[in-house]
């Protein structure tokens, strides 16, 4: 014989009260056992004008904020209107107490501000604050860059075929779409060029020649009153049309002048990659060495 079992709702107030009490107790236990995480500090925002020797600072001048014993510095660049911190906003981050390292400020920490590597002023960190802080420094000394480039299939240096013009570019670190300075420099017979009068700071530095692909050295620090040496390696030749790629279009240009020498009709200096005055198999071999490659600035 089968006995039907009917399920119904608990209607007893005592049962409901007991269940509610048990649920509350479990909630309190979980809350007590769960680890409590401290809330990270909010950042401190700054903006203002920047001047050097009472003259508005040029675009690209580095502004840096530093807190002692913090694992990182906070940097930005002066905008075209000689200000910082407007676009993009400039924040000094707060410390995260849930980590062992100190990544930012705590209330009461001293923030030191630098313009182009020169100390400007200080300010007290306060979590979540927003302050206008105009920065000014006196006369500063500038930095110099010594670039080293080598060339394949052009003989050993010193050699006249190592004398080459380059376009040199300084970019905001990690942002090749934001060029802060550009100029021209020519290597000597050993592949060395020099540029003086540069604003101290940290840059991604790129070079480009009319027949080679661009090369970039990242996060290079140029210090005041000092010459920084940067090695760009061996040029990657084969860019006949100077578009920073080595592809079919470049080979087509080479074949247009194939077999000619300097002074002949159809000879094209942009395809003479070894600078021997001829357009031959040697130039095509150099091109194929870097075939289908592109420059670092692409």
Helix content bin:
10-25%
Strand content: 25-35%
N-to-C SSE string, H for helix and E for strand: HEEEEEEEEEEEEEEEEEHH
What would the average pLDDT be, to the nearest integer?
90
Number of strands: 17
Structural class of the helices, strands and pairings?
A: mainly beta
User: Number of helix segments?
Assistant: 3
Shape designation: elongated
How much is the radius of gyration in Å? 32 Å
**N/C terminus separation:** 85 Å
Major beta sheet summary: 6 strands, mixed
Unreliable stretches, pLDDT < 50, 5 or more residues? Answer: none
Describe the secondary-structure layout.
Layout: H1 13-33, E1 44-52, E2 55-56, E3 62-67, E4 74-77, E5 83-84, E6 90-92, E7 110-115, E8 118-124, E9 130-132, E10 135-137, E11 143-150, E12 165-172, E13 175-186, E14 192-198, E15 201-208, E16 215-222, E17 227-234, H2 248-256, H3 281-289
């Amino acid at each position: 014989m089968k006995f039907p079992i009917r399920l119904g709702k608990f209607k007893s107030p005592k049962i409901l009260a007991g269940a509610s009490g048990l649920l509350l107790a479990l909630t309190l236990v979980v809350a007590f056992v769960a680890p409590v995480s401290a809330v990270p500090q909010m950042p401190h925002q700054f903006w203002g004008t920047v001047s050097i020797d009472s003259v508005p600072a040029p675009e690209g001048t580095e502004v840096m904020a530093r807190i002692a014993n913090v694992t990182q510095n906070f940097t930005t660049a002066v905008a075209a209107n000689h200000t910082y911190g407007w676009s993009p906003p400039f924040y000094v981050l707060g410390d995260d107490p849930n980590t062992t390292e100190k990544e930012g400020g705590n209330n009461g920490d001293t923030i030191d501000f630098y313009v182009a590597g020169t100390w400007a002023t200080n300010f007290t960190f306060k979590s979540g604050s927003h302050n206008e802080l105009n920065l000014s420094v006196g006369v500063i000394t500038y930095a110099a860059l010594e670039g080293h480039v080598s060339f394949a299939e052009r003989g050993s240096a010193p050699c006249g075929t190592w004398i080459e013009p380059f376009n040199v570019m300084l970019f905001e670190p990690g942002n090749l779409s934001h060029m802060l300075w550009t100029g021209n420099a020519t290597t000597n017979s050993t592949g060395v060029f020099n540029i003086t009068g540069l604003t101290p700071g940290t840059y991604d530095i790129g070079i480009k020649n009319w027949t080679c692909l661009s090369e970039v050295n990242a996060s290079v620090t140029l210090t005041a009153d000092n010459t920084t040496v940067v090695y760009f390696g061996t040029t990657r030749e084969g860019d006949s049309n100077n578009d920073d790629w080595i592809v079919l279009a470049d080979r087509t240009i080479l074949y247009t002048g194939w077999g000619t020498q300097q002074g002949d009709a159809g000879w094209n200096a942009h395809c003479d990659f070894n600078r021997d005055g001829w357009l031959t198999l040697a130039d095509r071999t150099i091109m194929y060495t870097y075939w289908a490659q592109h420059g670092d600035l692409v």
